[in-house]
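Worked example (supplementary).
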Amino acid sequence: MVFSSMTYLFVFLPMVLLAYFIAPPRARNMVLLAFSLIFYAWGEPVYIFLMLMSITVNYVFGRIISNNRANHSRYAKLNLGIAVGWNLLALGIFKYYPFVSSQLRGMGLKFIPAMKLILPIGISFYTFQAISYLVDVYRNKIRVQRGFFKFALYISMFPQLIAGPIVRYEDVEKQLTKRKVTLAMFGNGGEYFLRGLIKKVLLANQLGALYVQIESLGAAHASVLTAWLGAFAYTFQIYFDFSGYSDMAIGLGKMFGFRFPKNFDYPYTASSITSFWRRWHISLSSWFREYVYIPLGGKRVSPRKHVRNILIVWMLTGFWHGAGWNFVLWGLYYGILLLLEKYVVHDRISRHPWPGRILTFLLVTIGWMFFVHTDFSEMLTYVGHMFGVGCTFANATTGYFLRTGLLVLLLGMFFSTPIFHRLNEQFAVKYYTTSIAIRIVMFMLCIAALVYQSYNPFLYFRF
Amino acid sequence: MGEQWDIEKRRQLYIWVFQAVALTALFAFVWFIAHEKKYKEVDVPQLVADMSTITQDEWHEEDILSLKRRFGLAANDFAAVGYFGPNSNMDAAELLLVRVKEKSQIDAVVEAMKNRVAYQCTCFDGYGEDQMALLKDARYLTRGYYVFLIISSDATSVEREFLKQIEP
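After joint prediction of all chains, the assembly is encoded as:
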Protein backbone atom coordinates (compact mmCIF):
# COMPACT_ATOMS: atom_id res chain seq x y z
CA MET A 1 0.00 0.00 0.00
CA VAL A 2 1.23 3.47 -0.85
CA PHE A 3 0.96 6.36 1.65
CA SER A 4 -0.08 8.69 -1.14
CA SER A 5 -3.13 6.68 -2.20
CA MET A 6 -6.78 7.27 -1.50
CA THR A 7 -7.15 3.83 0.11
CA TYR A 8 -4.39 4.63 2.56
CA LEU A 9 -5.43 8.21 3.32
CA PHE A 10 -9.15 7.65 3.67
CA VAL A 11 -9.50 4.04 4.78
CA PHE A 12 -6.35 2.53 6.25
CA LEU A 13 -4.98 5.54 8.17
CA PRO A 14 -8.27 6.55 9.85
CA MET A 15 -8.90 2.91 10.80
CA VAL A 16 -5.48 2.36 12.33
CA LEU A 17 -5.61 5.68 14.22
CA LEU A 18 -9.06 4.93 15.55
CA ALA A 19 -8.19 1.37 16.57
CA TYR A 20 -4.90 2.50 18.12
CA PHE A 21 -6.34 5.26 20.28
CA ILE A 22 -9.43 3.42 21.48
CA ALA A 23 -7.36 0.36 22.41
CA PRO A 24 -6.03 0.19 25.98
CA PRO A 25 -2.32 1.13 26.15
CA ARG A 26 -1.25 -2.50 26.68
CA ALA A 27 -2.95 -3.62 23.49
CA ARG A 28 -1.58 -0.83 21.29
CA ASN A 29 1.50 -2.72 20.14
CA MET A 30 -0.73 -5.56 18.99
CA VAL A 31 -2.98 -3.12 17.12
CA LEU A 32 0.03 -1.61 15.36
CA LEU A 33 1.47 -5.03 14.59
CA ALA A 34 -1.83 -6.30 13.14
CA PHE A 35 -2.22 -3.24 10.94
CA SER A 36 1.43 -3.41 9.91
CA LEU A 37 0.96 -6.97 8.69
CA ILE A 38 -2.22 -6.01 6.80
CA PHE A 39 -0.35 -3.05 5.30
CA TYR A 40 2.46 -5.30 4.15
CA ALA A 41 0.19 -8.03 2.83
CA TRP A 42 -1.85 -5.57 0.78
CA GLY A 43 -1.53 -6.50 -2.87
CA GLU A 44 1.19 -9.14 -2.43
CA PRO A 45 0.04 -11.36 0.48
CA VAL A 46 2.39 -14.27 -0.15
CA TYR A 47 5.48 -12.37 1.00
CA ILE A 48 4.02 -11.93 4.45
CA PHE A 49 5.28 -15.48 5.10
CA LEU A 50 8.84 -14.42 4.30
CA MET A 51 8.53 -11.52 6.70
CA LEU A 52 7.09 -13.72 9.47
CA MET A 53 9.91 -16.17 8.85
CA SER A 54 12.44 -13.36 9.11
CA ILE A 55 10.87 -12.13 12.36
CA THR A 56 10.93 -15.61 13.92
CA VAL A 57 14.46 -16.46 12.78
CA ASN A 58 15.92 -13.15 13.96
CA TYR A 59 14.02 -13.24 17.24
CA VAL A 60 15.27 -16.75 18.08
CA PHE A 61 18.84 -16.07 16.96
CA GLY A 62 18.84 -12.84 18.98
CA ARG A 63 17.98 -14.90 22.07
CA ILE A 64 20.60 -17.56 21.27
CA ILE A 65 23.32 -14.93 20.77
CA SER A 66 22.34 -13.10 23.94
CA ASN A 67 22.32 -16.30 26.04
CA ASN A 68 25.76 -17.35 24.83
CA ARG A 69 27.71 -14.14 24.41
CA ALA A 70 29.08 -14.11 28.00
CA ASN A 71 30.25 -17.71 28.46
CA HIS A 72 30.41 -19.10 24.95
CA SER A 73 31.45 -16.14 22.86
CA ARG A 74 32.68 -18.30 19.98
CA TYR A 75 29.34 -20.10 19.89
CA ALA A 76 27.54 -16.76 19.98
CA LYS A 77 29.72 -15.55 17.12
CA LEU A 78 28.96 -18.70 15.13
CA ASN A 79 25.24 -18.13 15.59
CA LEU A 80 25.61 -14.48 14.66
CA GLY A 81 27.31 -15.63 11.46
CA ILE A 82 24.53 -18.12 10.71
CA ALA A 83 21.81 -15.57 11.42
CA VAL A 84 23.43 -12.83 9.32
CA GLY A 85 24.05 -15.45 6.63
CA TRP A 86 20.37 -16.43 6.66
CA ASN A 87 19.32 -12.80 6.24
CA LEU A 88 21.79 -12.20 3.43
CA LEU A 89 20.74 -15.45 1.76
CA ALA A 90 17.08 -14.40 1.79
CA LEU A 91 18.00 -10.95 0.44
CA GLY A 92 20.41 -12.49 -2.05
CA ILE A 93 17.91 -14.99 -3.45
CA PHE A 94 15.05 -12.58 -3.89
CA LYS A 95 16.96 -9.48 -4.86
CA TYR A 96 20.10 -10.68 -6.62
CA TYR A 97 19.57 -14.25 -7.83
CA PRO A 98 17.64 -13.33 -11.02
CA PHE A 99 20.38 -10.84 -11.95
CA VAL A 100 23.34 -13.06 -11.06
CA SER A 101 21.86 -16.13 -12.74
CA SER A 102 21.12 -14.20 -15.93
CA GLN A 103 24.72 -12.89 -15.99
CA LEU A 104 26.16 -16.36 -15.46
CA ARG A 105 23.85 -17.92 -18.03
CA GLY A 106 24.91 -15.18 -20.42
CA MET A 107 28.50 -16.31 -19.89
CA GLY A 108 27.55 -19.79 -21.09
CA LEU A 109 26.79 -21.44 -17.72
CA LYS A 110 23.39 -22.65 -18.91
CA PHE A 111 23.08 -25.25 -16.14
CA ILE A 112 22.33 -22.48 -13.63
CA PRO A 113 18.54 -22.34 -13.33
CA ALA A 114 16.92 -19.07 -14.33
CA MET A 115 14.30 -17.94 -11.84
CA LYS A 116 12.10 -14.91 -12.17
CA LEU A 117 11.37 -13.83 -8.62
CA ILE A 118 9.42 -10.78 -7.64
CA LEU A 119 11.29 -8.58 -5.18
CA PRO A 120 9.44 -8.60 -1.83
CA ILE A 121 8.74 -4.99 -1.07
CA GLY A 122 10.89 -3.45 1.66
CA ILE A 123 13.12 -6.54 2.03
CA SER A 124 16.32 -4.49 1.82
CA PHE A 125 15.14 -2.26 4.64
CA TYR A 126 13.82 -4.82 7.10
CA THR A 127 16.75 -7.17 6.49
CA PHE A 128 19.20 -4.41 7.36
CA GLN A 129 17.23 -3.59 10.50
CA ALA A 130 17.35 -7.23 11.54
CA ILE A 131 21.11 -7.50 10.91
CA SER A 132 21.81 -4.34 12.91
CA TYR A 133 19.75 -5.79 15.78
CA LEU A 134 21.66 -9.09 15.79
CA VAL A 135 25.07 -7.42 15.64
CA ASP A 136 24.15 -4.96 18.41
CA VAL A 137 22.94 -7.83 20.60
CA TYR A 138 26.24 -9.63 19.98
CA ARG A 139 28.24 -6.48 20.75
CA ASN A 140 26.22 -6.09 23.96
CA LYS A 141 25.18 -2.61 22.86
CA ILE A 142 21.51 -3.40 23.43
CA ARG A 143 19.51 -5.78 25.55
CA VAL A 144 17.87 -8.63 23.70
CA GLN A 145 14.13 -8.23 23.15
CA ARG A 146 12.36 -11.07 24.98
CA GLY A 147 8.84 -10.19 23.83
CA PHE A 148 8.17 -11.79 20.45
CA PHE A 149 5.43 -9.35 19.49
CA LYS A 150 7.50 -6.31 20.41
CA PHE A 151 10.29 -7.64 18.23
CA ALA A 152 7.82 -8.37 15.44
CA LEU A 153 6.60 -4.79 15.70
CA TYR A 154 10.16 -3.45 15.50
CA ILE A 155 10.76 -5.32 12.23
CA SER A 156 7.36 -4.79 10.63
CA MET A 157 6.23 -1.35 11.83
CA PHE A 158 4.32 -0.04 8.83
CA PRO A 159 5.36 3.64 8.77
CA GLN A 160 8.98 2.82 7.91
CA LEU A 161 8.63 -0.75 6.69
CA ILE A 162 8.67 -0.17 2.96
CA ALA A 163 11.33 2.46 2.40
CA GLY A 164 12.99 3.33 5.67
CA PRO A 165 14.45 5.12 7.46
CA ILE A 166 16.43 2.06 8.60
CA VAL A 167 15.64 2.33 12.30
CA ARG A 168 18.23 0.93 14.68
CA TYR A 169 16.82 -1.04 17.59
CA GLU A 170 18.48 1.21 20.18
CA ASP A 171 16.53 4.18 18.75
CA VAL A 172 13.14 2.62 19.55
CA GLU A 173 13.98 0.13 22.30
CA LYS A 174 12.34 2.11 25.10
CA GLN A 175 9.44 3.28 22.94
CA LEU A 176 8.47 -0.31 22.15
CA THR A 177 7.68 -0.77 25.84
CA LYS A 178 6.55 2.66 26.91
CA ARG A 179 5.63 5.67 24.83
CA LYS A 180 3.34 8.62 25.13
CA VAL A 181 1.60 10.59 22.44
CA THR A 182 0.85 14.16 23.40
CA LEU A 183 -1.45 16.34 21.34
CA ALA A 184 1.55 18.48 20.33
CA MET A 185 3.50 15.41 19.21
CA PHE A 186 0.52 14.09 17.27
CA GLY A 187 0.03 17.47 15.59
CA ASN A 188 3.73 17.69 14.78
CA GLY A 189 3.55 14.19 13.30
CA GLY A 190 0.57 15.22 11.19
CA GLU A 191 2.50 18.23 9.95
CA TYR A 192 5.46 16.04 8.98
CA PHE A 193 3.10 13.70 7.17
CA LEU A 194 1.49 16.53 5.25
CA ARG A 195 4.90 17.94 4.34
CA GLY A 196 5.88 14.54 2.94
CA LEU A 197 2.61 14.25 1.03
CA ILE A 198 3.12 17.68 -0.54
CA LYS A 199 6.69 16.79 -1.49
CA LYS A 200 5.56 13.59 -3.11
CA VAL A 201 2.32 14.60 -4.80
CA LEU A 202 2.83 18.24 -5.71
CA LEU A 203 6.57 18.25 -6.40
CA ALA A 204 8.04 14.80 -7.05
CA ASN A 205 5.22 13.64 -9.33
CA GLN A 206 5.32 16.84 -11.42
CA LEU A 207 9.09 16.68 -11.72
CA GLY A 208 8.82 12.99 -12.59
CA ALA A 209 6.37 13.78 -15.39
CA LEU A 210 8.84 16.34 -16.77
CA TYR A 211 11.69 13.84 -16.63
CA VAL A 212 9.61 11.12 -18.35
CA GLN A 213 8.78 13.51 -21.17
CA ILE A 214 12.42 14.50 -21.70
CA GLU A 215 13.75 10.98 -21.28
CA SER A 216 11.37 9.62 -23.90
CA LEU A 217 12.39 12.19 -26.53
CA GLY A 218 13.91 10.78 -29.67
CA ALA A 219 17.48 11.60 -30.73
CA ALA A 220 16.12 14.18 -33.21
CA HIS A 221 14.90 16.38 -30.33
CA ALA A 222 17.89 15.93 -28.03
CA SER A 223 20.03 18.86 -26.94
CA VAL A 224 22.51 19.62 -24.17
CA LEU A 225 20.20 21.98 -22.34
CA THR A 226 17.19 19.66 -22.58
CA ALA A 227 19.25 16.74 -21.26
CA TRP A 228 20.36 18.85 -18.28
CA LEU A 229 16.78 19.98 -17.65
CA GLY A 230 15.73 16.32 -17.57
CA ALA A 231 18.61 15.41 -15.28
CA PHE A 232 17.72 18.25 -12.89
CA ALA A 233 14.08 17.15 -12.97
CA TYR A 234 15.05 13.62 -11.93
CA THR A 235 17.51 14.95 -9.33
CA PHE A 236 14.77 16.92 -7.63
CA GLN A 237 12.17 14.20 -8.19
CA ILE A 238 14.15 11.54 -6.36
CA TYR A 239 14.87 13.93 -3.50
CA PHE A 240 11.25 14.96 -2.99
CA ASP A 241 10.01 11.44 -3.55
CA PHE A 242 12.31 9.78 -1.06
CA SER A 243 12.54 12.56 1.52
CA GLY A 244 8.75 12.90 1.20
CA TYR A 245 8.35 9.25 2.11
CA SER A 246 10.78 9.65 5.01
CA ASP A 247 8.88 12.70 6.28
CA MET A 248 5.63 10.73 6.13
CA ALA A 249 7.26 7.82 7.97
CA ILE A 250 8.69 10.10 10.67
CA GLY A 251 5.34 11.89 10.95
CA LEU A 252 3.38 8.65 11.29
CA GLY A 253 5.90 7.43 13.85
CA LYS A 254 5.28 10.56 15.91
CA MET A 255 1.52 10.08 15.66
CA PHE A 256 2.01 6.68 17.33
CA GLY A 257 4.60 7.91 19.84
CA PHE A 258 7.80 6.80 18.07
CA ARG A 259 10.76 9.01 17.27
CA PHE A 260 12.48 7.84 14.12
CA PRO A 261 15.84 9.31 13.15
CA LYS A 262 16.11 12.02 10.51
CA ASN A 263 16.90 10.62 7.07
CA PHE A 264 17.58 13.81 5.05
CA ASP A 265 19.17 17.12 5.87
CA TYR A 266 18.96 19.31 2.77
CA PRO A 267 21.47 17.20 0.82
CA TYR A 268 21.51 19.44 -2.25
CA THR A 269 22.98 22.28 -0.21
CA ALA A 270 26.04 20.15 0.63
CA SER A 271 29.35 21.71 -0.33
CA SER A 272 31.15 18.40 -0.86
CA ILE A 273 30.34 14.80 -1.71
CA THR A 274 31.31 13.78 1.84
CA SER A 275 28.83 16.27 3.20
CA PHE A 276 26.19 15.15 0.67
CA TRP A 277 26.34 11.59 1.99
CA ARG A 278 26.04 12.84 5.55
CA ARG A 279 22.76 14.44 4.51
CA TRP A 280 21.26 11.94 2.04
CA HIS A 281 19.62 8.71 3.25
CA ILE A 282 21.41 9.19 6.56
CA SER A 283 20.16 5.92 8.04
CA LEU A 284 21.68 3.87 5.19
CA SER A 285 25.03 5.70 5.22
CA SER A 286 25.32 5.29 8.98
CA TRP A 287 24.37 1.60 8.67
CA PHE A 288 27.18 0.95 6.22
CA ARG A 289 29.61 3.00 8.33
CA GLU A 290 28.73 1.11 11.52
CA TYR A 291 28.44 -2.44 10.18
CA VAL A 292 30.80 -2.54 7.19
CA TYR A 293 33.25 0.38 7.05
CA ILE A 294 34.36 0.42 10.70
CA PRO A 295 34.61 -3.41 11.00
CA LEU A 296 36.82 -3.32 7.88
CA GLY A 297 39.14 -0.94 9.73
CA GLY A 298 37.63 2.39 8.69
CA LYS A 299 40.28 5.02 8.12
CA ARG A 300 42.58 3.81 10.89
CA VAL A 301 44.48 1.64 8.44
CA SER A 302 47.11 2.16 5.77
CA PRO A 303 46.05 4.43 2.88
CA ARG A 304 45.93 1.39 0.58
CA LYS A 305 43.51 -0.44 2.84
CA HIS A 306 41.53 2.75 3.35
CA VAL A 307 41.07 3.05 -0.41
CA ARG A 308 39.97 -0.61 -0.49
CA ASN A 309 37.51 -0.05 2.38
CA ILE A 310 35.92 2.95 0.72
CA LEU A 311 35.55 1.19 -2.61
CA ILE A 312 34.04 -1.91 -0.95
CA VAL A 313 31.55 0.15 1.03
CA TRP A 314 30.48 2.20 -1.98
CA MET A 315 30.23 -0.76 -4.27
CA LEU A 316 27.97 -2.43 -1.70
CA THR A 317 25.98 0.78 -1.26
CA GLY A 318 25.39 0.84 -5.01
CA PHE A 319 24.50 -2.83 -5.11
CA TRP A 320 22.12 -2.42 -2.18
CA HIS A 321 20.05 -0.10 -4.35
CA GLY A 322 19.48 -2.71 -6.99
CA ALA A 323 20.72 -5.74 -8.84
CA GLY A 324 22.26 -4.10 -11.87
CA TRP A 325 25.65 -2.97 -13.10
CA ASN A 326 24.47 0.62 -13.26
CA PHE A 327 24.02 0.61 -9.48
CA VAL A 328 27.51 -0.79 -8.99
CA LEU A 329 28.84 1.90 -11.32
CA TRP A 330 26.91 4.55 -9.41
CA GLY A 331 28.34 3.31 -6.10
CA LEU A 332 31.90 3.20 -7.44
CA TYR A 333 31.43 6.68 -8.92
CA TYR A 334 30.82 7.97 -5.40
CA GLY A 335 33.66 5.86 -4.01
CA ILE A 336 36.06 7.48 -6.44
CA LEU A 337 34.71 10.98 -5.83
CA LEU A 338 35.09 10.51 -2.07
CA LEU A 339 38.65 9.25 -2.51
CA LEU A 340 39.45 12.28 -4.66
CA GLU A 341 38.03 14.53 -1.95
CA LYS A 342 39.99 12.83 0.80
CA TYR A 343 43.34 12.39 -0.93
CA VAL A 344 43.52 15.03 -3.68
CA VAL A 345 41.24 17.98 -2.94
CA HIS A 346 41.48 17.80 0.90
CA ASP A 347 39.90 20.82 2.60
CA ARG A 348 40.13 23.12 -0.40
CA ILE A 349 36.39 22.63 -0.96
CA SER A 350 35.36 23.67 2.53
CA ARG A 351 37.28 26.92 2.09
CA HIS A 352 35.09 27.74 -0.94
CA PRO A 353 31.59 26.57 -0.01
CA TRP A 354 29.67 28.11 -2.92
CA PRO A 355 31.73 26.69 -5.80
CA GLY A 356 31.77 23.48 -3.77
CA ARG A 357 27.96 23.45 -3.54
CA ILE A 358 27.51 24.00 -7.27
CA LEU A 359 30.11 21.40 -8.21
CA THR A 360 28.65 18.87 -5.75
CA PHE A 361 25.15 19.42 -7.10
CA LEU A 362 26.32 18.93 -10.69
CA LEU A 363 28.26 15.77 -9.79
CA VAL A 364 25.26 14.39 -7.92
CA THR A 365 23.03 15.18 -10.91
CA ILE A 366 25.35 13.26 -13.24
CA GLY A 367 25.41 10.42 -10.70
CA TRP A 368 21.61 10.12 -10.81
CA MET A 369 21.80 9.52 -14.54
CA PHE A 370 23.94 6.42 -13.86
CA PHE A 371 21.42 5.44 -11.22
CA VAL A 372 18.25 5.80 -13.26
CA HIS A 373 19.40 4.17 -16.51
CA THR A 374 19.60 0.41 -16.10
CA ASP A 375 20.47 0.04 -19.79
CA PHE A 376 24.10 1.02 -20.41
CA SER A 377 23.63 2.20 -23.97
CA GLU A 378 20.71 4.43 -22.92
CA MET A 379 22.84 5.74 -20.04
CA LEU A 380 25.77 6.58 -22.30
CA THR A 381 23.49 8.23 -24.85
CA TYR A 382 21.80 10.37 -22.21
CA VAL A 383 25.01 11.38 -20.41
CA GLY A 384 26.56 11.96 -23.86
CA HIS A 385 23.76 14.40 -24.66
CA MET A 386 24.47 16.25 -21.41
CA PHE A 387 27.99 16.87 -22.72
CA GLY A 388 27.02 17.66 -26.29
CA VAL A 389 27.80 14.32 -27.90
CA GLY A 390 25.71 14.06 -31.06
CA CYS A 391 23.40 17.00 -30.38
CA THR A 392 23.18 20.77 -30.43
CA PHE A 393 23.25 22.99 -27.35
CA ALA A 394 19.57 23.93 -27.58
CA ASN A 395 16.67 23.65 -30.01
CA ALA A 396 12.95 24.34 -30.27
CA THR A 397 12.16 21.45 -27.89
CA THR A 398 14.39 23.07 -25.27
CA GLY A 399 12.29 26.22 -25.51
CA TYR A 400 9.13 24.16 -24.95
CA PHE A 401 10.55 22.47 -21.85
CA LEU A 402 11.92 25.74 -20.50
CA ARG A 403 8.47 27.26 -20.80
CA THR A 404 6.62 24.30 -19.30
CA GLY A 405 9.16 22.95 -16.81
CA LEU A 406 11.25 25.84 -15.54
CA LEU A 407 8.77 26.88 -12.87
CA VAL A 408 8.54 23.42 -11.31
CA LEU A 409 12.36 23.13 -11.43
CA LEU A 410 12.78 26.49 -9.70
CA LEU A 411 10.24 25.43 -7.09
CA GLY A 412 12.18 22.21 -6.66
CA MET A 413 15.38 24.15 -6.15
CA PHE A 414 13.77 26.51 -3.65
CA PHE A 415 12.07 23.79 -1.59
CA SER A 416 15.22 21.69 -1.40
CA THR A 417 16.97 24.41 0.61
CA PRO A 418 16.31 25.25 4.27
CA ILE A 419 15.15 28.76 3.32
CA PHE A 420 11.51 27.73 2.92
CA HIS A 421 11.54 25.79 6.19
CA ARG A 422 12.78 28.85 8.09
CA LEU A 423 10.28 31.20 6.44
CA ASN A 424 7.48 28.74 7.07
CA GLU A 425 8.28 28.49 10.76
CA GLN A 426 8.41 32.28 11.16
CA PHE A 427 5.13 32.62 9.24
CA ALA A 428 3.40 29.97 11.37
CA VAL A 429 4.35 31.80 14.56
CA LYS A 430 3.23 35.17 13.26
CA TYR A 431 0.06 34.15 11.37
CA TYR A 432 -1.09 30.97 13.06
CA THR A 433 -4.64 30.81 11.68
CA THR A 434 -3.59 31.65 8.14
CA SER A 435 -0.89 29.00 8.23
CA ILE A 436 -3.46 26.39 9.31
CA ALA A 437 -5.73 27.47 6.44
CA ILE A 438 -2.80 27.17 4.01
CA ARG A 439 -2.11 23.63 5.23
CA ILE A 440 -5.74 22.65 4.67
CA VAL A 441 -5.63 24.11 1.15
CA MET A 442 -2.38 22.23 0.44
CA PHE A 443 -3.97 18.99 1.63
CA MET A 444 -6.96 19.58 -0.66
CA LEU A 445 -4.59 20.26 -3.56
CA CYS A 446 -2.80 16.98 -2.85
CA ILE A 447 -6.10 15.12 -2.90
CA ALA A 448 -7.12 16.79 -6.14
CA ALA A 449 -3.77 15.82 -7.67
CA LEU A 450 -4.12 12.27 -6.39
CA VAL A 451 -7.53 11.89 -8.00
CA TYR A 452 -5.99 12.89 -11.31
CA GLN A 453 -2.71 11.00 -11.02
CA SER A 454 -4.14 7.53 -10.29
CA TYR A 455 -0.91 5.74 -9.44
CA ASN A 456 1.87 7.04 -7.19
CA PRO A 457 4.61 4.57 -6.45
CA PHE A 458 7.61 5.81 -4.48
CA LEU A 459 10.92 5.41 -6.34
CA TYR A 460 12.59 3.76 -3.36
CA PHE A 461 9.94 1.01 -3.14
CA ARG A 462 11.86 -0.97 -5.72
CA PHE A 463 14.95 -1.16 -3.53
CA MET B 1 27.46 -32.41 36.46
CA GLY B 2 26.24 -35.12 34.06
CA GLU B 3 22.72 -33.71 34.13
CA GLN B 4 24.02 -30.22 33.39
CA TRP B 5 25.98 -31.65 30.47
CA ASP B 6 22.80 -33.35 29.15
CA ILE B 7 20.79 -30.14 29.39
CA GLU B 8 23.54 -28.26 27.55
CA LYS B 9 23.70 -30.91 24.82
CA ARG B 10 19.93 -30.96 24.44
CA ARG B 11 19.88 -27.15 24.19
CA GLN B 12 22.50 -27.26 21.46
CA LEU B 13 20.52 -29.95 19.64
CA TYR B 14 17.42 -27.73 19.69
CA ILE B 15 19.45 -24.86 18.30
CA TRP B 16 20.87 -27.07 15.59
CA VAL B 17 17.36 -28.26 14.68
CA PHE B 18 16.16 -24.65 14.59
CA GLN B 19 19.00 -23.67 12.28
CA ALA B 20 18.14 -26.53 9.94
CA VAL B 21 14.42 -25.68 10.00
CA ALA B 22 15.14 -21.99 9.30
CA LEU B 23 17.22 -22.84 6.28
CA THR B 24 14.79 -25.48 5.00
CA ALA B 25 11.84 -23.13 5.42
CA LEU B 26 13.60 -20.45 3.40
CA PHE B 27 14.38 -22.81 0.53
CA ALA B 28 10.88 -24.31 0.68
CA PHE B 29 9.42 -20.82 0.38
CA VAL B 30 11.67 -20.00 -2.57
CA TRP B 31 10.65 -23.28 -4.24
CA PHE B 32 6.98 -22.47 -3.66
CA ILE B 33 7.32 -18.99 -5.13
CA ALA B 34 9.31 -20.26 -8.11
CA HIS B 35 6.72 -22.96 -8.87
CA GLU B 36 3.59 -20.87 -8.41
CA LYS B 37 1.23 -21.01 -11.39
CA LYS B 38 2.63 -18.40 -13.71
CA TYR B 39 1.30 -17.02 -16.91
CA LYS B 40 3.71 -16.95 -19.81
CA GLU B 41 5.98 -13.96 -20.07
CA VAL B 42 5.20 -12.46 -23.43
CA ASP B 43 6.49 -9.49 -25.37
CA VAL B 44 3.72 -7.12 -24.29
CA PRO B 45 3.95 -4.43 -27.02
CA GLN B 46 4.20 -7.15 -29.67
CA LEU B 47 1.21 -9.05 -28.26
CA VAL B 48 -0.92 -5.90 -28.24
CA ALA B 49 0.20 -5.13 -31.79
CA ASP B 50 -0.81 -8.65 -32.85
CA MET B 51 -4.19 -8.37 -31.15
CA SER B 52 -4.82 -4.99 -32.73
CA THR B 53 -4.97 -6.75 -36.11
CA ILE B 54 -8.00 -8.79 -35.05
CA THR B 55 -10.25 -5.88 -35.93
CA GLN B 56 -8.81 -3.58 -38.55
CA ASP B 57 -8.79 0.24 -38.48
CA GLU B 58 -10.05 0.61 -34.94
CA TRP B 59 -6.88 1.93 -33.33
CA HIS B 60 -3.25 2.85 -33.71
CA GLU B 61 -0.15 2.50 -31.52
CA GLU B 62 0.29 5.25 -28.94
CA ASP B 63 3.40 6.54 -27.16
CA ILE B 64 4.00 6.60 -23.41
CA LEU B 65 3.07 10.26 -23.16
CA SER B 66 -0.47 9.44 -24.30
CA LEU B 67 -0.58 6.77 -21.63
CA LYS B 68 0.39 9.33 -19.00
CA ARG B 69 -2.04 11.90 -20.32
CA ARG B 70 -5.05 9.62 -20.66
CA PHE B 71 -4.54 7.13 -17.82
CA GLY B 72 -2.20 8.98 -15.46
CA LEU B 73 0.16 5.99 -15.68
CA ALA B 74 3.92 6.26 -16.24
CA ALA B 75 5.18 3.38 -18.36
CA ASN B 76 8.45 3.26 -16.36
CA ASP B 77 6.56 2.19 -13.24
CA PHE B 78 5.61 -1.13 -14.83
CA ALA B 79 7.40 -4.14 -16.21
CA ALA B 80 5.92 -3.66 -19.68
CA VAL B 81 3.14 -1.72 -21.38
CA GLY B 82 1.43 -1.96 -24.75
CA TYR B 83 -1.11 0.66 -25.73
CA PHE B 84 -3.22 1.17 -28.84
CA GLY B 85 -5.52 4.18 -28.77
CA PRO B 86 -8.50 5.34 -30.82
CA ASN B 87 -7.90 6.50 -34.38
CA SER B 88 -9.54 9.86 -33.75
CA ASN B 89 -11.37 11.78 -31.05
CA MET B 90 -14.58 10.38 -32.48
CA ASP B 91 -13.49 6.77 -31.85
CA ALA B 92 -13.58 4.86 -28.59
CA ALA B 93 -11.71 1.60 -29.25
CA GLU B 94 -8.63 1.10 -27.05
CA LEU B 95 -6.33 -1.72 -26.00
CA LEU B 96 -4.09 -1.35 -22.99
CA LEU B 97 -2.05 -4.22 -21.63
CA VAL B 98 0.13 -3.67 -18.57
CA ARG B 99 2.43 -6.19 -16.94
CA VAL B 100 2.89 -4.88 -13.40
CA LYS B 101 6.06 -5.29 -11.37
CA GLU B 102 4.20 -6.30 -8.25
CA LYS B 103 0.61 -7.26 -7.57
CA SER B 104 0.04 -4.25 -5.33
CA GLN B 105 0.03 -2.17 -8.54
CA ILE B 106 -2.95 -4.01 -10.01
CA ASP B 107 -5.68 -2.09 -8.16
CA ALA B 108 -4.27 1.25 -9.22
CA VAL B 109 -4.02 0.18 -12.86
CA VAL B 110 -7.59 -1.14 -12.93
CA GLU B 111 -8.76 2.07 -11.26
CA ALA B 112 -6.93 4.16 -13.88
CA MET B 113 -8.56 2.11 -16.64
CA LYS B 114 -12.02 2.54 -15.13
CA ASN B 115 -11.43 6.30 -14.77
CA ARG B 116 -10.47 6.48 -18.43
CA VAL B 117 -13.60 4.59 -19.50
CA ALA B 118 -15.77 6.78 -17.25
CA TYR B 119 -14.20 9.90 -18.76
CA GLN B 120 -14.81 8.63 -22.30
CA CYS B 121 -18.42 7.88 -21.36
CA THR B 122 -18.93 11.50 -20.31
CA CYS B 123 -17.51 12.57 -23.70
CA PHE B 124 -19.76 10.37 -25.81
CA ASP B 125 -22.86 10.30 -23.64
CA GLY B 126 -25.89 11.68 -25.48
CA TYR B 127 -24.62 11.57 -29.05
CA GLY B 128 -22.12 8.77 -29.66
CA GLU B 129 -24.39 5.73 -29.54
CA ASP B 130 -21.88 3.29 -31.12
CA GLN B 131 -19.03 4.54 -28.97
CA MET B 132 -21.14 4.25 -25.83
CA ALA B 133 -21.96 0.65 -26.73
CA LEU B 134 -18.25 -0.15 -26.99
CA LEU B 135 -17.46 1.60 -23.71
CA LYS B 136 -20.25 -0.21 -21.89
CA ASP B 137 -18.77 -3.50 -23.10
CA ALA B 138 -15.27 -2.53 -21.87
CA ARG B 139 -13.48 -5.55 -20.38
CA TYR B 140 -10.95 -5.50 -17.57
CA LEU B 141 -8.94 -8.71 -17.32
CA THR B 142 -6.49 -9.51 -14.55
CA ARG B 143 -4.35 -12.63 -14.93
CA GLY B 144 -1.25 -13.03 -12.79
CA TYR B 145 0.78 -9.88 -13.36
CA TYR B 146 -1.18 -8.84 -16.46
CA VAL B 147 -3.91 -6.22 -16.48
CA PHE B 148 -5.76 -5.77 -19.76
CA LEU B 149 -8.34 -3.25 -20.93
CA ILE B 150 -10.25 -4.09 -24.08
CA ILE B 151 -12.61 -1.66 -25.75
CA SER B 152 -13.38 -3.13 -29.11
CA SER B 153 -16.16 -4.07 -31.52
CA ASP B 154 -14.90 -7.66 -31.21
CA ALA B 155 -13.82 -7.74 -27.57
CA THR B 156 -14.54 -11.46 -27.26
CA SER B 157 -12.04 -12.44 -29.96
CA VAL B 158 -9.39 -10.12 -28.52
CA GLU B 159 -9.95 -11.55 -25.05
CA ARG B 160 -9.76 -15.14 -26.33
CA GLU B 161 -6.54 -14.45 -28.21
CA PHE B 162 -4.99 -12.77 -25.17
CA LEU B 163 -5.79 -15.70 -22.88
CA LYS B 164 -4.49 -18.15 -25.47
CA GLN B 165 -1.18 -16.31 -25.63
CA ILE B 166 -0.52 -16.09 -21.91
CA GLU B 167 -1.87 -19.43 -20.64
CA PRO B 168 1.00 -21.58 -19.33
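Two points are worth noting when inspecting this output. Chain B has two domains: 1-36, 44-166. Helices of chain B lie at 2-34, 44-51, 64-71, 106-124, 129-136, 155-166.
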